[in-house]
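Sample pair:
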Amino acid sequence: MARKLSFPVVIGKFVFHRDDCKMLIKQEFPDAISLCKNVSDMDHNELTIKQGKKLFDILARFEKEENESVENLDPFTAAYFECALWSSNDESTPEGGEPFDSNYNFSDIAPEAVVQMKKDCREFQKIYAKLMEGLEPDWCGHDFWLTRNHHGAGFWDRGYPKEISDGLTKACHAFGECNLYLGDNKKIYVM
């Protein structure tokens, strides 16, 4: 038995049109060919109850991520955000502009950037907890940003034992570089 799903789907302040829903399902369930096919071939906006539940679960997760905030950050993550704003410029002049922290704060970071930055911090702390054992979390968050972006300072110059500084430096470089930039909407994004 099929249940009607009317497009657009509205969840909170977000509006998802038919194509948005197809894209989200394809991204979330790349191996679920039948689900993608059914959504692509939907006639009269019909989904099975199971398909509809999966779609709404995806959309609910999307809404949760979009509403990620910068409140109550752990010390590692807060220091990572602070360092990112302090060490990155807004490119408002040909000389590079001002450091972001001169004119912007955490609330100016776009929600999708908040999600990505928090995810990177969570993963780094989880994977390398053993190497960071006994180190100050705020310094580690600061050094994660600096080291991954090759700023000329970071884990390697703190005077830690070689196996710790080398291990954490290598770990940061494995995460790859990322940079902040100011969008046309005056929100800060990460690339």
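The chain has two domains: 2-66, 75-190.
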